[in-house]
Specification:
This protein has about 220 residues and is an alpha/beta fold. It contains 7 helices and 6 strands; from the N terminus they run ββαααβαβαβαβα.
Length: about 220
């Protein structure tokens, strides 16, 4: 299996040979190998993004006096023992949310298997394209939009993966950050959710080499 290498004008520049281990993995992937790992990894990533800061006050935390509003009998009113009762407006909340940590533990091997699954799926579906580098002469959004059109990526959710400080420049990052459905990430930090959330993946040669180092087992 090979990955087509293009320039930013959409012209083919060559091919990248994909590791035989990834090819073999995709054959296994047709039998749903790695699907559960992908689910666990993506679920954990999304859970970790939750702030978990929602907080309500219980009856004991509501400000105010602890005095009984009125005597138990003789007033004709319903009996009441506290101004902070959950039955009253402004009272405490029963079983309300409290600050909590939503993060989940995912083993390193599971995370690697998930990235293998999603990367190989994108590659075999023809949704992964390689480029030599991601560099632009000026930080113009209009020029970046034209690059997307030339590469046939207009309207798609595109994930650009680069080896930061090596094959991408500041102009490219500035030009792309104001375009919807486009995300630029470092090859060292790309995760399964990034790949799953995109419909097209564009990776530089150097970034692809680093990704293979991460996901190919020795």
């Amino acid at each position: 299996m090979t990955i087509t290498v293009k320039d930013l004008q959409g012209k083919e520049q060559g091919q990248i040979e994909v590791s035989s281990q990834l090819e073999k993995f995709e054959e296994l992937g047709k039998r749903l190998v790695g699907t559960q790992a992908a689910h666990e990894a993506v679920t954990a990533i999304r859970a970790a993004q939750r702030s978990g800061t929602a907080c309500t006050k219980t009856m004991g935390e509501v400000a105010g006096s602890g005095k009984k509003p009125w005597r138990q009998k003789g007033t004709g009113r319903a009996r009441a023992g506290s101004f902070a009762s959950p039955l009253w407006p402004g009272g405490g909340v029963v079983f309300g949310p409290k600050p909590r940590d939503y993060s989940k533990k995912v083993n390193r091997k599971v995370s690697r298997l998930a990235l293998q699954k999603l990367i190989s799926t994108r590659a075999c579906a023809g949704d992964l394209v390689a480029v030599e580098e991601l560099k632009m002469q000026s930080p113009k959004t209009g020029q970046f939009v034209q690059v997307l059109k030339d590469m046939g990526l207009d309207g798609a959710k595109v994930l650009f993966i680069a080896a930061m400080d090596e094959d991408i420049n500041t102009n490219f990052c500035l030009a792309s950050r104001n375009v919807q459905k486009v995300k630029v990430v470092d090859s060292a930090t790309v995760n399964p959710y990034d790949v799953l959330a995109s419909t097209k993946v564009v990776v530089t040669r150097k970034a692809w080499a680093k990704i293979e180092e991460r996901i190919i087992t020795k």
